[in-house]
Amino acid sequence: MRAMNDLDAARDTLAALGRGFHAHGWVPATAGNFSIRLDNGQIVMTRSGRHKGRLTAEGFMRLDGLGQPLDEGTPSAEAGLHVALYRRWPEIRCVLHTHSPRATVLSRRRGKHVTLADYELLKAFDGIDTHEMEIELPVFDNDQDIAALGARVNTWLDRHPAPPGYLIRGHGLYTWGRNPEATERHVEALEFLFECELLASR
Ligand SMILES: [Zn+2]
């Protein structure tokens, strides 16, 4: 991606991610939402109800750093969850939310967290340079009240080391990173690890 203050580059990057994720079946039927934070602090966010495999420039809108719309229209219903992550960590620049079958099924089979231990691919996450460790992804019960869900996420994140993502039960994955490439890598690595967990528990 070019400079992070480039609105067109942000939209192009997210549209390309949407095509790839849709081809994998990770954002079916308008599900999921994506965002990038620009250098000026504005958040470029997918609009509500857009097909993520066919995003055009018109499928995005800008929010300010507090989540207030800067363009006309309706942002994704879950925009508040993106904004909360950006407010928590100034260094992150991209948030990706997917609804894959693996994330959906695994989150229904686990309790309050998914533990990923001793996988070589854990090295895909920033700050991890060995497979000899485990990470804990929290699983939050789904809620149509996004503010209430966001409050539960925030309370958990206040009390734990930063995970590379979190799951919402029967719903999907949120992950983030210091740029879109790192965040895409997190989605791919977590999808792989979710598949391993499901294969191992058959
Ligand atoms: Zn969702």
Automatic annotation (TrEMBL):
<dbReference type="InterPro" id="IPR001303">
    <property type="entry name" value="Aldolase_II/adducin_N"/>
</dbReference>
<keyword id="KW-0028">Amino-acid biosynthesis</keyword>
<dbReference type="Pfam" id="PF00596">
    <property type="entry name" value="Aldolase_II"/>
</dbReference>
<dbReference type="GO" id="GO:0008270">
    <property type="term" value="F:zinc ion binding"/>
</dbReference>
<feature type="domain" description="Class II aldolase/adducin N-terminal">
    <location>
        <begin position="12"/>
        <end position="198"/>
    </location>
</feature>
<dbReference type="GO" id="GO:0005737">
    <property type="term" value="C:cytoplasm"/>
</dbReference>
<protein>
    <recommendedName>
        <fullName>Methylthioribulose-1-phosphate dehydratase</fullName>
        <ecNumber>4.2.1.109</ecNumber>
    </recommendedName>
</protein>
<dbReference type="GO" id="GO:0019509">
    <property type="term" value="P:L-methionine salvage from methylthioadenosine"/>
</dbReference>
<dbReference type="InterPro" id="IPR017714">
    <property type="entry name" value="MethylthioRu-1-P_deHdtase_MtnB"/>
</dbReference>
<dbReference type="GO" id="GO:0005996">
    <property type="term" value="P:monosaccharide metabolic process"/>
</dbReference>
<feature type="binding site">
    <location>
        <position position="99"/>
    </location>
    <ligand>
        <name>Zn(2+)</name>
    </ligand>
</feature>
<comment type="function">
    <text>Catalyzes the dehydration of methylthioribulose-1-phosphate (MTRu-1-P) into 2,3-diketo-5-methylthiopentyl-1-phosphate (DK-MTP-1-P).</text>
</comment>
<keyword id="KW-0862">Zinc</keyword>
<dbReference type="InterPro" id="IPR036409">
    <property type="entry name" value="Aldolase_II/adducin_N_sf"/>
</dbReference>
<comment type="pathway">
    <text>Amino-acid biosynthesis; L-methionine biosynthesis via salvage pathway; L-methionine from S-methyl-5-thio-alpha-D-ribose 1-phosphate: step 2/6.</text>
</comment>
<comment type="similarity">
    <text>Belongs to the aldolase class II family. MtnB subfamily.</text>
</comment>
<keyword id="KW-0486">Methionine biosynthesis</keyword>
<keyword id="KW-0479">Metal-binding</keyword>
<feature type="binding site">
    <location>
        <position position="97"/>
    </location>
    <ligand>
        <name>Zn(2+)</name>
    </ligand>
</feature>
<dbReference type="GO" id="GO:0046570">
    <property type="term" value="F:methylthioribulose 1-phosphate dehydratase activity"/>
</dbReference>
<keyword id="KW-0456">Lyase</keyword>
